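Two proteins follow. First one:
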Amino acid sequence: MAAKPISSAWRLLPLLMTAGLMIACDATNVEDSAGVATPADAGRQMYRDGILPSGEPMTAIVAGDVPVLGTQFSCESCHGRSGMGAAEGSYIVPPIAGRFLFAPSPQPARPAYTQESLAHLLRNGMTPGGRDLGELMPLYKLTDEEVAAMTAYLAKLSFGISPGVDDEVIRFAMVITDDVSAAEREAVLAVLNTFVEDKNRNTRLESERWDRGNTPASRLPTIHRDWVLEEWALSGPAETWNEQLERRYRGAPVFAMLSGLSDRSWGPISDFCERNEIPCLFPGTDLTDAAEGDFYTLYFSRGLELEADLIASHLAESPVADVVQVYCADGAAQAATHLRAKLEKLETAVSDIEFDCDAASPLEDVPDHLATAEDATFILWLNQEEVAAIGDRMPAGRVYFSSTLLGSELDAPFSSLAGPAFLAHPFRLPGQFDPAFARFEVWANTRGIELTSPRRQSEAFFACLAIKDAVAHIGRYFIRDFVLDTLDHAQSIVAYLSFYPRPTLGPQQRFVNKGGYVLPIVDGQPDPTEAAWILP
């Protein structure tokens, strides 16, 4: 089952780039020294963040007379992190990575850029061939030294292929931590390994296809690479994960992280990907711990933090004086902390009941504590087993549950509730047909894959589809940042994402699902009849 093409405009870019494939950049290149800032370092800051070497924002004019700051509208905003170009509607933003910018271009015809002609372009919007780029090109106020810094960075930008690719294979890693059950691990690996086997089998003859046509691009060597997927198992405390990842990466670099599984915070793994600039694509986690400005990890959702925001939004419409949160110290503590900060801004008093996940009877004393909190609203960050341990001793006040923690059997915990209850639900509404999951189910059934962990397995399938389509798009330019730039414009691929109700992809968007619902519990079941979409 193949995903739809990302867009017809994007598909044109590799054709426009072919002429520059074998041309080396002749612009001045600055070798980095450890601990020493170079012009290329300053140019990187200008390109990505719109900040001059002085620390001040770049300034520019767009649309003839509209002033903007580089922090609002950087070079990366249009040309992508990779500099390999982009498409906005019918308008194609050309590649400006060094191998293309500092080489002649046949489409449209122009001579190679030099530092002087780049300065003229940045200041006046005019190419070396005399073409005016029009109102969409910002006109920057830059000194000669600042142009030199930009030149040095663009000369190095996306110059060679990224690690993890050779003439025969492209390598991926699936990271999994030791808190994940063996059953869930095997279920997800069955999907990943089967997808990789299918992909390699269906393109097994591509390496023999030379001279396939009359164009220069068709006569180049094949772009086919077999996929190799490794399982990178992490064990022990999270503080040791980085060293484990670095050791595996030094031994055999990978082009990207694909899928993944953890019931703990993904933050240390994401930090590793950010430091090494490795795409980390759609891990199976509900504890993202994402940092502001992260670029290299794409998530399905903010998970439990999103549910905390949904609850906070619901409580803001019907304020309460006191809230009691119940959670496992190693489980939803991150979400509880996030919700506490939200509620304190609403001047709501928040107290916590934290229990030891690994104790023999972790919730033994919790019902007694709940009974002493009169007139409070309760947030129960509990899974099915933990709710069952409380049984008929549920609190009498308003209660909120987590759909993520409860899993797919959403009616089981609600039979003994005495007061009003609600469910934070960042997924499709109960009973709603899911066409993406139906397609995935057919794919899995025809390959003999048992769906024992449906959400995680369908997420792994989507991650594979996304990287397959992105790799097909980037062609022979195996550049990690180009993959992420491509996925930024891959809105059509979300039609294949199961479970999530309104998924979107777009530039700088690192969470595919951004909202959800708070469903009332009526007669022991979530009631979706009047569910309102909440976008925190």
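Second one, unrelated to the first:
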Amino acid sequence: MTNLLNNICIRVFKVCNWKSSFGVCFLIIVFGCSSPKTKHLYNVLDYGAIGDSQTLNTSNIQAAIDACSNNGGGTVYFPSGTYLSGTIQLKDNIHLYLDAGTTILASKEHKDFPRQKQPRYRSQKDSGGWFSLIYGVGLTNISITGQGTIDGNGVEQKPRLGLLGNDRDGRPRNLLFISCKKIKIEGITMRNSGIWNQHYLNCEDVFVNNINVYNHSNRNNDAIDIDGCRRVTISNSIFDSDDDGITLKSTGTAPTEDVAITNCVISSYCNAIKAGTESTGGFKNIAISNCIIKPSRSKTPPIFDGVPKRGITGISLEIVDGGTMESIAINNITIEGTQCPLYIRLGNRGRKHSNEAPEPQMGVMKNITISNLIAYETGNFSNSITSIPGSYIENVSLHNIQIFNKGGLVEKDFIIDYAQVKEEEKSYPQPTVWGNLPSSLFFVRHVKNLVVSNLTFGSENPDPRIPFVGIDVHNVSIGNFFYTGGSTSETFALLRKQSAYSIDRPMNWEGKYWLDIK
């Protein structure tokens, strides 16, 4: 009831512009609402903020937040306007409400974003303190909702002298919450961050719903990063980013687990949905469903050189810095136009999350199910499921899959010999490391217990590559395949160093030699 009354008050105060004291007081009595300066509702205009896009409002906004906090918490209200600001420190029990027509716009001045004190929780991305527009550490019960916008003014966010590295050069995030609990982000638009758009690090009970993210203004423009968090839902949202889209990470010791992602549309020049690259704490109990992955609507080319405009991967699952990935369920996904729909990688880059940390041991990847996936107009990198010698990805099931690549290759366009596909144990985990693999459908290496069923595949243009290549694979079952055409290979599957396999001939496959085994 309190939340309902507060929402009614927000609308009333907006209409009255907080000035009609008789009308406002009457409504306060009738509805049981609080005035703007009581413990429930605080209008930033009453603390001197000016929404003219020119006046710096950092201290005014902070004053409203501090007053609200001192009275036990409540709503800090932003009426329509563009509020230029530097770093805003959120506090316990604070709800920021951005009304329609409201923009919080990041300053372009370094001095307006002081480096924050290094928190107790250590992350590979933190070399001594963070920079962010909206920031909070160790908070409980915080939220940002409404119909307004957070704009990071990313084109104007320049690296600072003396700070090196993509995540360590001082460009501010739009949102950064560290070791916080009970977070709600709903309804708002987020744009143009200096680096990652929103970063939730070692947080719990994170609820992100019905937001719109458009992030094409600077390097490393991820849409959202869930990093070492527990109990997270991301739903009913649209993400369009220059760098990775929905990104699950574990850049410290905390795991990312119990995460549900559903009903989202994601566009990325890099990896649309990704678990990795950093993986120290691992990933567990991740459910992704009812999502559409499609090319970005941005008219500008990617900021990173060599990145395909239609995206590198649709779904990437990666363990390369230690940690365990297990119990991953992905269902009802439509992918349009990425170079590589599925990329599953267990490597051993072994990067430490801090200088003091021990070098991580080889990671583990197991128990992954992907079902009801359609990928069309995809590039020719090929889908891949790969580990490194001496380690195996285990228990992968793929069901009800349709994949149609572009094809149109000649021999000079791809790696012809499977033995020439380097292990790349220490390389950055991304299919660009290999380019076009010797398979048109799946390249599988160092995998145990793989089941593929009900798969329809084909190439839009002639493709001379073998559809399925499996190296060092054990307990493999591939059945109920339907081939729609396009391949010019006489061999459907090539297996080397295999054991315990069952591979059916695809329906409509006319090649003379459908299986090549040694």
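SUMMARY FIELD: The two ends are 70 Å apart (CA to CA). Residues 1-5, 12-38 have pLDDT under 50 and may be disordered.
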